[in-house]
């Protein structure tokens, strides 16, 4: 293995959390095995907000929760590039922008699905970000509890979205003294 005089060095910024420390330890180890030097900058919550607003990072390890088509627009449209924008990757692609605009306005589900397919093709070709994982929330519910509809949970509190519809079938009984 030949030593390089000037190895590639990258800097990764992340919120200082136990989870991020574990993830970045693995990333650093794997990258250094192929000769890439990795510097890690852990920031607190306020510092990361400033870093994001100022786009002061080479690579950022950060999680986003996308709840709607509007969020897709905010996180990926080129109008959100630069200082104070939410497009963390500063991804700028005219065709991608057009599709995001169409998705936001489209009512027809079939057309919307096709727009998303086209978005994915552009994203996979350009690779403006790498998604490491998506948390999966699993909940056990007693079979006696009826009316529970857990179809899509993006955040743990979402599991209670229709709690007012939950019930347990019981027998009617009158209690007399």
Description:
This protein is of the alpha/beta class and 177 residues long. Helix content is 36%, strand content 12%. It has five helices and five strands. The protein has helices at residues 18-33, 45-53, 69-76, 94-105, 109-126, and strands at 9-15, 37-43, 59-61, 145-146, 167-168. It has a three-stranded parallel beta sheet with strand order 2-1-3. Strands 4-5 form a two-stranded antiparallel ribbon.
Compile the SSE list and pairings.
Layout: E1 9-15, H1 18-33, E2 37-43, H2 45-53, E3 59-61, H3 69-76, H4 94-105, H5 109-126, E4 145-146, E5 167-168
Parallel strand pairs: 1-2, 1-3
Antiparallel strand pairs: 4-5
Helix pairs in contact: 3-4, 4-5
**Percent of residues in beta strands:** 5-15%
Category from helices, strands and their pairing:
alpha/beta
User: What's the helix-strand series?
Assistant: EHEHEHHHEE
On the 0-100 scale, what is the average pLDDT? 88
Question: What oligomeric state do these chains adopt?
Answer: single chain
Number of helices: 5
Percent helix, as a range, is 25-40%
Termini gap: 89 Å
Strand order of the largest sheet: 2-1-3
Observed structural traits:
177 residues; alpha/beta; two-stranded antiparallel ribbon; 12% strand
Short description:
The protein has helices at residues 18-33, 45-53, 69-76, 94-105, 109-126; strands spanning 9-15, 37-43, 59-61, 145-146, 167-168. With 177 residues, it is an alpha/beta fold. A three-stranded parallel sheet has the order 2-1-3. The chain has a two-stranded antiparallel ribbon with strand order 4-5.
């Amino acid at each position: 293995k030949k030593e390089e005089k000037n190895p590639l060095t990258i800097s990764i910024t992340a919120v200082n959390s136990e989870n991020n420390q574990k993830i970045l330890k693995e990333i650093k180890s794997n990258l250094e095995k192929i000769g890439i030097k990795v510097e890690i900058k852990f920031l607190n919550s306020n510092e990361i907000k400033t870093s994001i607003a100022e786009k002061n990072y080479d690579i950022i390890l950060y999680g986003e929760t996308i709840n709607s088509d509007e969020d897709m627009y905010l996180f990926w449209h080129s109008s959100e590039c630069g200082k104070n924008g939410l497009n963390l990757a500063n991804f700028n692609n005219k065709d991608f922008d057009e599709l995001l605009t169409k998705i936001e306005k489209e009512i027809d589900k079939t057309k919307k699905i096709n727009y998303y397919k086209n978005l994915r093709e552009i994203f996979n070709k350009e690779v403006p970000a790498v998604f490491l994982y998506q948390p999966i929330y699993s909940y056990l519910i007693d079979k006696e509890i009826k009316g529970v509809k857990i179809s899509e949970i993006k955040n743990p509190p979402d599991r209670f979205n229709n709690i007012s519809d939950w019930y347990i079938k019981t027998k009617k009984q009158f209690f007399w003294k």
